[in-house]
Amino acid sequence: MLDQKKIEENLKTHFKIMNEMCLQMRKISDQMERLSNELHELSRNTGSIAQKITGFSRYPSGLPGVPG
Fold first, then answer.
1. Residues 6 or more apart from 67 whose CB is under 8 A from it?
2. In degrees to the nearest 10, what's the CA dihedral of 16, 21, 23, 24?
3. For residues 16 and 18, what is the distance between their CA atoms, to the nearest angstrom?
4. Separation between Cα atoms, residue 67 and residue 3, nearest integer Å
5. Smallest Cα–Cα separation from 26: which of 18, 15, 16, 14?
6. Is the pLDDT of residue 68 over 60?
7. What end-to-end distance do the CA atoms of the chain give, in Å?
8. Gap between the Cα atoms of 52 and 68, Å rounded
């Protein structure tokens, strides 16, 4: 059976690892949000370019879900 000191060391290690994982997940989440925003902007720009070329807009207002 583990002694109290070993249990405390294991818990400290566990929480350090968990904290680092949470920090990494936050960074990944922030990166995903930035990428999502960039993709949204790219999509809008692509639609705008396509509209200028073809004269046709899938979204008359320029925004999905917003009536023209």
1. 60, 61
2. 140
3. 5
4. 68
5. 18
6. no
7. 71
8. 17
Count CB-CB contacts under 10 A for residue 62: 13
> Residue 5, Cα to own-chain centre: how many angstroms?
40
Query: What does the pLDDT average to over 31-54?
Result: 88
**13-17, 21-25, 31-35, 42-46: lowest mean pLDDT where?**
42-46
Say how far apart CA 46 and CA 49 lie, in whole Å. 5
Residue 41 C-alpha from the chain's centroid: 14
Distance CA 13, CA 3 (A): 16
Residues contacting 59, CB < 8 A, separation 6+: 47, 65, 66, 68
Residue pair 27/35 in contact by the 8 Å Cβ criterion: no
**pLDDT surpasses 90 at 54:** no
